[in-house]
Design brief:
With about 200 residues, this protein is an alpha+beta fold. The protein folds into 2 domains: about 30 residues; about 120 residues, Immunoglobulin-like (Sandwich), CATH 2.60.40.1240. The protein is built from 3 helices and 13 strands, in the order αααβββββββββββββ. A hairpin with a 3-residue loop joins strand 11 and strand 12. The radius of gyration is 36 Å and the shape is globular. The termini are far apart.
């Protein structure tokens, strides 16, 4: 009799509708657990394709275009950036070597450059920091071979100098030519200079 009376007392202690609340609560907890389990297996957590990762890394390494000075110097004048000085000493046509012939309808133009590191750090010297731009805004990268001595790729310590020819294959009709030289200086970014070539 005691057990039966205890059971009836426990049922009386439960509020009206309490059983339904308990069932609904357990169902809600089970549904939430199921949603979490499904979300962890969903496509949103899948690793991105390797190609997308590589493309993003390449974009992050791209250098911004250099800020060009408003004034372009002329042949024989000192063009001064923050950490180096550039002088174009000579402009002339150069013979293209057999190993690196020019394209038909072009001329190989040689620019004899002098560079000096005037800042506190090293300055990278490289012919491929240079481009020639014509009056139609066409850009021409440096070519291999021509007049000697050629400008070598090297690091200039503060106070050091380098000199040599940089070459460009240009169409015979290209005019209003300007040299743009823009090395990337560690800790300072790209430092661009412009020199008009009087051609």
């Amino acid at each position: 009799m005691t057990g039966a009376s205890d059971s009836r007392a426990s049922r009386r202690a439960l509020p009206r509708g309490g059983a339904r609340f308990v069932i609904w609560g357990l169902a809600a907890i089970a549904a939430a657990a199921g949603c979490r389990k499904r979300s962890t297996a969903g496509p949103t957590d899948a690793a991105p394709p390797a190609a997308s990762v590589a493309a993003g890394a390449a974009r992050s390494l791209e250098l911004p275009p250099p800020e060009l000075p408003a004034e372009a110097k002329r042949i024989g004048e000192r063009a001064e950036a923050r950490d180096y000085v550039l002088v174009v000493r000579e402009v002339r046509e150069c013979p293209a070597p057999a190993a690196f012939p020019g394209r038909p309808g072009t001329v190989r133009l040689g620019l004899r450059l002098e560079l000096e590191a005037t800042g506190r750090g090293d300055i990278p010297v490289n012919p491929f920091h240079a481009n020639v731009v014509d009056g139609a805004a066409e850009r021409y990268p440096a070519s291999f071979g021509g007049c000697t001595p050629e400008l070598r790729a090297e690091q200039l310590a503060p106070g050091a100098r380098a000199a040599g020819f940089v070459h460009f294959d240009l169409p015979h009709g290209a005019t209003d030519l300007t040299l743009e030289y823009a090395p990337f200086v560690l800790g300072a970014g790209r430092q661009a200079l412009r020199v008009r070539l009087d051609r």
